[in-house]
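Sequence only, no structure available. Ideas?
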Amino acid sequence: MSERVQKVLAARGLGSRREIEGWIERGEVQVNNRTAQLGDQVDEHDVIRVRGRIVRRPEHPHRWIVYHKPVGEICSRSDPEGRRPVFASLPRLKGQRWVAVGRLDLNTSGLLLFTTDGELANRLMHPSMALEREYAVRVLGEVPAATLDMLRGGVELEDGPARFDSLEEQGGDGANHWYHVIVSEGRNRLVRRLWDAVGVTVSRLIRVRYGPVVLGRGLKTGAVRDLESREVAGLYAAVDLPIPESARPRGRGGPRRDPRSKQRPGKPAAAGKSRNSRAAREDGWSSSPPKKSGKPASPGGRGGGRGAKPSGGRSGGRPAGGGKSGGRRQR
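Reply:
I predicted one. Tokens follow.
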């Protein structure tokens, strides 16, 4: 069966489809010694070269991981200013390449998805899929109800109108107030720009869910975990792609963890059943319900559409949590 060359190269993990289309436009891809054009069809008998090197059939199964990005890292592979790229923290691959699913800006922490399946990454980011992204947001000061209604209804930005699909207040102490918001598009810095458009300052922003995958309890800032089989299946189902054989459950286990990773694979948080942990307290999220005292629970995500309750803290401080999982403080 023949497929478009950019789709084949993306599926082999060489990059996102958009990135590969740029290579084709610049004449960097050849099929059977002829410069490829966008839309060219290839099959298993064709010889594909990228910048003169033959692209072999994939020898390794695809990988899918979640990375808990800390504040201060960039989502590029290199930076002229010397800032640490997120790719420096990922497991090393042989014959494959990590493709990031979306981006987070320098001052935003939380969930980043990576995979070696470029076709999956392209589908997950495509605007037509409208996958939900959920964030825990800490803002400074009281936000009037009319302003919250405006954010739910729509705000005019420089690149067109936008709104929060869901916005729920989660409480807070002193000058800090937590909210959970959901957007279904990936415009640059959309969450921050929406708050800024109504005159509200965001002091902390944490992504806790992307589509069906949540950050998971106990995953320290800067740590990685492999997705479980059910999470991988959920991603492929969300974008109408067949589930690879390597992602199907084997007995009680899921996709294998990289043996060099010191992080044990964490379980994703189930809707309404997550527990607090030390990592949740120190990294600023969890998914435990709020205490009846009225103090908020720490910001986190659930597998369902709505977020869990953030935990407040002292003015300017971190959300509270409990438990025994390890973690490290963000400075």
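The chain has seven helices and 17 strands.
Hope that gets you unstuck.
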